[in-house]
Amino acid sequence: MVVAANRVEHTEDRGSIDTIVSVTKRDMARVNELILSMAGSRVELIPEIANHLISSGGKRLRPMLTIATALAHGYDEGDAQVKLAASVEFMHTATLLHDDVVDESDLRRGKRTARTIWGNQASVLVGDYLLGQAFKMMVDVGSMTALSILSDASAIIAEGEVWQLAAAKRMTTSEADYLAVVDAKTAALFAAAAEVGPVIAGAGDEARAAMRRYGRSLGVSFQLIDDVLDYGGVAADLGKNTGDDFREGKITLPVILAYQAGDEDEKAFWRSAMEDGNNDDAALARALELIERHATLKTTIERARAFGAEAYEAAAGLPPSAARDALLDVVEFCISRIK
Amino acid sequence: MVVAANRVEHTEDRGSIDTIVSVTKRDMARVNELILSMAGSRVELIPEIANHLISSGGKRLRPMLTIATALAHGYDEGDAQVKLAASVEFMHTATLLHDDVVDESDLRRGKRTARTIWGNQASVLVGDYLLGQAFKMMVDVGSMTALSILSDASAIIAEGEVWQLAAAKRMTTSEADYLAVVDAKTAALFAAAAEVGPVIAGAGDEARAAMRRYGRSLGVSFQLIDDVLDYGGVAADLGKNTGDDFREGKITLPVILAYQAGDEDEKAFWRSAMEDGNNDDAALARALELIERHATLKTTIERARAFGAEAYEAAAGLPPSAARDALLDVVEFCISRIK
After folding, report:
1. pLDDT number for residue B235
2. Which domains does chain B show, CATH number per domain?
3. If B100 and its partner were Cys, which of A12, A281, A295, B113 is the partner (CB 3.0–4.6 Å)?
4. How far is A312 from A214, CA to CA, in rounded Å?
5. Strand partners, A107
6. Comparing C-alpha atoms, which of A170, A152, A154 is closest to residue A255?
7. A222-242 per-residue burial string, b: 16 or more CB within 10 A, e: under 16
8. A113-127, A217-231, B96-110, B145-159 — which is least confidently predicted?
9. Mean of the pLDDT values across residues B303-323?
10. Is 0.85 exceeded by the ipTM?
């Protein structure tokens, strides 16, 4: 644990997504083909909308996790990993389509969102279609265990979204509350994506639990770094602008920590900005100043590093292989996005 | 077929839903319990919204079909039928939640829709949650065949909805186009609900195909009668007002047939009403007059009877049992809603 934590702390300059891209390259080519084919339909609007998102330059980290964790457990043939990886990406895409409707977002990864081009209605329904197709692919694999893991994740993700909608727009949200939402909204799919790899490889319960822990911790770490990038840092690869979360009233960890550390004046500012929508450029400038004053980006990065260290440790126990190295490098990549 | 058709034609006064309610009573009590429990969540908003719809007086015809077709094939123990029936109802409820968002509907079964009380966002996400819970229950049953049937239905329903959104708002929609949408949007879930009964009972392919045909034809018949009721007839049990479809610009069979039979003036009226939204009370009065002039409710009822006869025939081949009689009576009930 100490070793792992130290390693994470000292490798900001070397973490790279290239290792996992390279290790999963052969299978990801098949995943991408399958995605295109399963996003097809006699109803033209479906591939039109699906491909808008699918081709919008996401890194496809989640399906790569499925491929890499399958490889790391010796599953190197067949097509179960390809179908499950495509399912995972469809679940993610469906979530994004619905998220953009719920958040009324106009931009994602620097491109107009599907809902601004084709409308909320089509975004909801195409999301439903992709989810249906995801389940069809899982059924096709024929592993009841994998189905159980992924259907659990599906319900947990939606539950987390409703929770966030219902309660998380209040500045009284605690760090624990927020981490519970991140756990459901983001980490649950990372965890499921990483766990189904060993499942189809026929690995035992311990291996499954380790990969689940890996995916979950990686997911939380990933989200916290995203939160930090939204208030600064180098975010070119995210297609996000500084302050997007702020303007959408999304309460994230840097804000929660700044609120908690603030005096009464500052607390009133945060409530007005996040709860009542007083979030113009001047308000963003003040928000950045308060975040700087209380060094909450630094604290958030520390939290992210701690989760990263857990993920690192979970994968470090794997037998040596290129896939294991790729899984370890992904952890470092997530953290090293912060310059 | 002739016998079946004749029987359907002459029994408008006796079709009743009471038989299937009585036959499925024991299991439906368990289905209702399971529904309440699976609609639960630590996030209070979820049961609040789910129960609004679940307790809004729907007949629960779809889950009753699963119970009755399982019973008709000798499955009388265990809980697979209960879990699958609850899954079917959740899939239906999720579809209604999303439908009301997509159609911007304010009323359903005479009650305010969830979206008008809790908003579109919560309706989308709670629908997603119920769909996830539906898949969890299916996985719990452990039948890959049942999972395959229901996940197929899930994708087909969404595909049908997108199709309707994209193309079916034009008056050039043909009867065949419309029936294809009904087949996907409504009949696919009826078909799946009826098919999984024999599947868990371990019945053979022929029995499965017959029940699938039964559910599908019943579903089309059911929808066409709904379409008729929207332009008149006795609709007390539907919570719909005459002209709801008209005001929402939903092009249904009575309208398609009236358009096709109309002269240029009438065609222009329909285009203006359905495509451009000129659908005030005066327009509705004219629509009713044209529907009457071309007797398109009568023609639609004839179509519904023909599908009903197919459903009747498919179930008539079952060995005699109370469940078989219940399935036959449901067909007559659907048609006999027209006085």
Report:
1. 43
2. 2-336 (1.10.600.10)
3. B113
4. 7
5. A112
6. A170
7. bbbbbbbbbbbbebeebebee
8. B96-110
9. 97
10. yes
B121: nearest CA partner in chain A: A102
Report d(CA A60, CA A43) in Å as an integer. 25
Q: Mutation target for A interface from B125, B163, B181: give the one with most A CBs within 10 A.
A: B125
DSSP notation for B195-236: HHHHHHTT--HHHHHHHHHHHHHHHHHHHHHHHHHTTSS--G
Residue B338 has φ and ψ, to the nearest 5°, of: -85, 125
* CA-based nearest distance B144→chain A, Å: 7
pLDDT at B233: 56
B211-227 tens-digit pLDDT: 999 999 999 999 999 99
Considering only CB atoms, A166 lies closest to which of B43, B131, B133, namely: B43
User: How much is the pLDDT for B236?
Assistant: 44
> Is the Cβ pair A124, B147 closer than 8 Å?
no
- DSSP letter at A107 equals E
Q: How many CB pairs under 8 A join A and B?
A: 141
Asked if B98 lies within 8 A of A124 by C-beta distance, the reply is yes
Decide if A132 and B156 are in contact by the 8 Å CB cutoff: yes
Best CA proximity match to B71, nearest among B322, B245, B311: B322
Question: CB–CB of A98 and B126 under 8 A?
Answer: no
- From B283's Cα to the closest Cα of chain A, the distance in A is 27
Residues in chain A closer than 8 A to B102 (CB atoms): 121, 124-125
pLDDT in tens, A226-282: 999 999 854 444 455 678 889 888 899 999 999 999 999 999 999 999 999 999 999
pLDDT at B9: 37
Identify the band that residue B339 occupies on the pLDDT scale cut at 50, 70 and 90.
Answer: low
Q: In chain A, which ranges are E strands?
A: 107-108, 111-112
How far apart are the C-alpha atoms of B201 and B185, rounded to whole Å?
27
Q: How far apart are CA A189 and CA B271, in angstroms?
A: 46
pLDDT digits (tens, 9 = 90+) for A43-92: 889 999 888 877 776 789 999 999 999 999 999 889 999 999 999 999 99
**Encoded tokens for B266:** 């009438």
> Is the Cβ–Cβ distance between A339 and A26 less than 8 Å?
no
Tracing tokens 């808008």 back to the chain, one arrives at A52
